[in-house]
Amino acid sequence: MTSQPDNSTLEDLPPRWTLEGFRLGAWTILPLMPGLAAFAMAFGTVAARKGFSLADALAMSGTVYAGVAQLVVLESWPEKLTLPAIGGIVLVTALICSRFLLIGASLRPWLGSQPAAKIYPALFLLVEPNWLMSMRYRANGGSDPAYLVGGGVVIYIVWVGATAAGYWLGASIGDPHSFGLDLVMPAFFTAMLISMWRGPRASLGWMIGGAVAVATDYLFGGMWYLIVGALAGSVAGGFIDDSE
Amino acid sequence: MIASDPAGFLVLLFGMTLAVYATRAGGFWLIGRVTIGRRLQKILQAMPGAVIAATIAPILLHGGLSALLAVFAASLAMLAVRNDFAAVVAGVAVAAAARAAGL
Predict the structure, then answer these.
(1) Which of A32-36, A176-180, A199-203, B39-43 reaches the highest mean pLDDT?
(2) Which of A54, A77, A113, A236 could form a disulfide with A14 if both were Cys (CB 3.0 to 4.6 A apart)?
(3) Got the DSSP string for chain B?
(4) What pLDDT, in 10s, does the model give residues A52-99?
(5) CB-nearest partner of B95 from A77, A131, A180
(6) Which residues of A fall within a CB distance of 8 Å from B27?
């Protein structure tokens, strides 16, 4: 979070990776972990019910590592894993995760100067929570790429670990819905929006993004609203913003 | 179910993992092939807020009163103390209370 005294070096040199940055990223992501654990436990529970072995469930959480996609795929699990069924599942997965295309693109101005051998492995750990935290960290003057990785490592461990917990405990823990745990992410996202508030004009893109997402959801259903709304909101926001 | 078709499950995992990683790395890679001008820079800057708004707006619409109250409580807490954790706790607590009250 320390700002560089000399701004020219910040532009010229690629930002350094430090252990402090990693720790800070890991630390600031912790408030979100109860909600994420509940989400992963829900996946583990459903996987057990669908006949997954524990190893199957852990393998999926550990390789795919994409919460919404994993749950949607489980909900519509096919009778038999024929090749067309597998192709369909992969396509749905790609659609649900297409928002990562935008998320990754937004990191380019910050991390574009990083060596590929470091940045492409790091991108495996890219999900919304550590991305959002990193964008705010960046907006506040931070530049250490290890911040993104620190958050990502914590999320990954909790995601895979809580998958196992959910698989074992199953329905015995009660309904996470009654504890309001399904609203952790919306509550966190709202808090992030508030900390990103830069006046009504700058947030017009958010309104457009939200409205287009609601309209897309209403008209087409499925998961199209994620990418369509995000894209519409970004482009609109980018054209509304005329500041230097 | 999966024990009966381990090869199919492996192919599926491989396909899903590849698809998700392609989205994670692909946007970063693609935008590196073009020059980021002023307008594109602005669009990228607008992206975090737009992604969040597009993600939560339909959830709020489907989530009913308890979701709206939770987000309202989270906003108030964030404005009051400027702390993510407090906002999340406030939102979740209000949602749990609202649901316990049958809202």
Answers:
(1) B39-43
(2) A113
(3) --TT-HHHHHHHHHHHHHHHHHHHHHHHHHHTTS---HHHHHHHHHHHHHHHHHHHHHHHHHHHHHHHHHHHHHHHHHHHH--HHHHHHHHHHHHHHHHHTT-
(4) 999 999 999 999 999 889 988 988 888 889 999 999 999 999 999 999
(5) A180
(6) 100-105
Is B41 part of any domain? no
Look at B15 and A90 and tell me if their CB atoms are within 8 Å: yes
Of A45, A91, A42, residue with least CA distance to A67: A42
Task: Say yes or no: B27 and B73 in one domain.
Answer: no
Indicate whether A201 pLDDT > 90.
no
Structural domain of residue B18, as residue ranges?
Answer: 1-34
Chain B residue numbers with beta carbons less than 8 Å from the beta carbon of A83 are 11
CA A42 – CA A187 distance, rounded (Å): 19
pLDDT of residue A15: 80
Task: Tell whether B67 and B88 lie within a shared domain.
Answer: yes
Residues B54 and B30 in one domain: no
Query: ipTM for the complex?
Result: 0.86
| Better-predicted residue by pLDDT, A120 or B86 | A120
**pLDDT value, residue A3:** 46
- Asked whether the beta carbons of residue B12 and residue A235 sit closer than 8 angstroms, the reply is no
Residues of chain B neighbouring A236 (CB-CB closer than 8 A): 46, 50
pLDDT of amino acid A13? 63
Window 14-73 of A: residues touching B by CB (8 A cutoff) are: 28, 31-32, 35, 50-53, 56, 59-60, 63-66, 69, 73
- A100:B23 CB<8 A: yes
Residues B29 and B53 in one domain: no
In a domain, B65, yes or no: yes
Is B64 part of a structural domain of the chain?
yes
If one counts the domains in chain B, the total is 2
pLDDT for the residue numbered A1:
45
Sign of CA dihedral A88, A90, A96, A99: negative
Amino acid letter at A203?
S
